[in-house]
Amino acid sequence: MKTNNLIFLVLLVVMLGCNQDDENPQALNGTYIGIFERDGEVADVELTLDNGTYQGQGEHPKFPAICRGTYTVSGNKIIFVNTCFWTAEFDWTLILSGEWQFALNNKILIMTNAAGDRYTLNRQ
Questions:
Q1: At residue 43, what are phi and psi to the nearest 5 degrees?
Q2: Of 19, 24, 38, 92, whose CB neighbour count within 10 A is largest?
Q3: Would you say residue 101 has pLDDT above 90?
Q4: Short-list 40, 43, 41, 70, CA closest to 55
């Protein structure tokens, strides 16, 4: 009897922990317009987030390199997986992919990565 209770308790804690860590990607749904910043250079961008998929573009070709792909949300992190083909003549760290910290306040989405790149976007 004690073993069954212990197993139930462990399973309950695991299930509740998983539910609390996973964020709802629909909360970010929308089209965002704003800027991308890297090392003092700035470009206008547009990004659409829709139920775990994204697409977008920048003002300048490949600065930043936004195309399309998927994303997942966990806590205050958003992880992008690019699904577009890119040629090799530019800095691939400009491709929107990988892990980003984010904050959504009212209609303003701010995303930053470990390299210091930053998106400041307004939901339309």
A1: -140, 145
A2: 38
A3: yes
A4: 70
Q: pTM for the whole thing?
A: 0.79
82 touches 69 (CB < 8 A): yes
Q: What is the pLDDT of residues 65-77, one digit of tens each?
A: 999 999 999 999 9
- What 8-state DSSP symbol labels residue 89? S
Q: What is the mean pLDDT of residues 14-36?
A: 69
Tokens standing for residue 14: 């695991």
C-beta separation of 78 from 111 below 8 A: yes
* Residue 34 bridge partners (DSSP): 45, 121
Contact partners, residue 94, CB within 8 Å, separation at least 6: 38, 62, 63, 64, 65
User: Which residues, including other chains, have CB under 8 Å from residue 30's CB and lie 6 or more apart?
Assistant: 48, 49, 123, 124
| 4 within some domain | no
Domain that holds residue 60: 24-123
Considering the domain boundaries, does residue 32 fall inside one?
Answer: yes
